[in-house]
Amino acid sequence: MSGQIPIIDLQVWFSGSTRQKNQLCERVNRICHEIGFFYIINHGIAESSSSAYMSMARAFFDLPEREKRKMDKSHSPHFRGWEQLGSELTNNQTDYREQIDIGIDRAAIANPDPYYMALVGPNQWPDKNVLPGFRDTVVNYIAQLSEVSRHLLAIMSVSLGLDENYIQTVFGNNPSPYTKLIRYPETVAGTQGVGVHKDSGFLTLLLQDENGGLEAQSNDDQWHAVDPIAGSLVVNTGELLQLLTLNYFIATPHRVINRHTAPRYSSAFFYSPDLTTRLEPLPISQRFADAAASSPRHSNEGLMASRKEILSGKNSMSSTTIPTVFGEKYWQRWVRSYPDIARHYYPEHAG
């Protein structure tokens, strides 16, 4: 299936001619409109850096459970930290994976207002004497992925007829990137590694090991493997790019099923804006808006439902509630996935 998911060579963006760069932008525009998934190669992150990062992830998951429990996500009002198998929900069903969520380390805000500013806060880290170098390795890799993401947003801006810095400017002064290190055991029959979903932010960059398992849903509702390609990152567009481009860019449903007996390791990096960023449509050409409006797939494409909507019986990807600020959307994502933590710390905003 990897041959059916396009491959974008970013070396063209870094050192190509103006004509080559414009052709690259046009191609990315079509991919984001028609598919929503692609690989990038020559992205500027050294293979040695990616390998060291994945080795550190494996070392973390190999720690004794007593060490990982010191970082249990239930200890964090900011939804940061480690979670054992079966701790997260997708579509109100349990995901069969172990993971750790790490964002930008910031001081928690006392009496946060608006409520979603409670998501600002510190990470939980393993003891540096137990896993030396983990924190520095992860922080460095987040910085490198953020830089690649900024280049991708520049390409997308140009592809939409905007100044190359336009979307990045929309992100505000305090972007909200975070990374999720994941270990998938073999997916047990009748369960899900991670269930069908769309990503809530702007961009996702995925680093995966040699064991496949990621699948994306095409226009004909068929599932296609997004197989590992050495030296690549997988990129998919999130719900906010769909929302801000009036559904011209598409957020594609995807899932993970590990059919291997060996664990699958991956790292999903989500590049998203300042929590206070207003979600207003980009000033794109009318032809893009018309193309989305005239396509049944695009015009009918919804957003992931909030937990309240799911419990009321709404389809998990057909929300009619349009958030106006990123913090509202981000909050929905965490509450939907971790309702117990939300009820514990924020009973008044856990619906």
Commentary on this structure:
This protein has 351 residues and is α+β, with helices and mostly antiparallel strands. The protein has a single domain (2-349), classed as Jelly Rolls, CATH 2.60.120.330. It has helices at residues 11-15, 18-34, 47-61, 65-69, 134-159, 166-170, 239-244, 286-293, 296-299, 307-311, 326-337, 339-345, and strands at residues 7-9, 37-41, 81-83, 89-90, 93-94, 98-102, 178-184, 194-197, 203-208, 214-217, 223-225, 233-237, 254-256, 264-271. Strands 1-2-12-9-14-7-6-3 form an 8-stranded mixed β-sheet. It has a 4-stranded antiparallel β-sheet with strand order 8-13-10-11, with no helix packed on it. The N and C termini lie far apart (39 Å). The model has no long low-confidence stretch (mean pLDDT 94).
Summarize this, please?
The protein is α+β, with helices and mostly antiparallel strands and 351 residues long. The protein contains twelve helices and 14 strands.
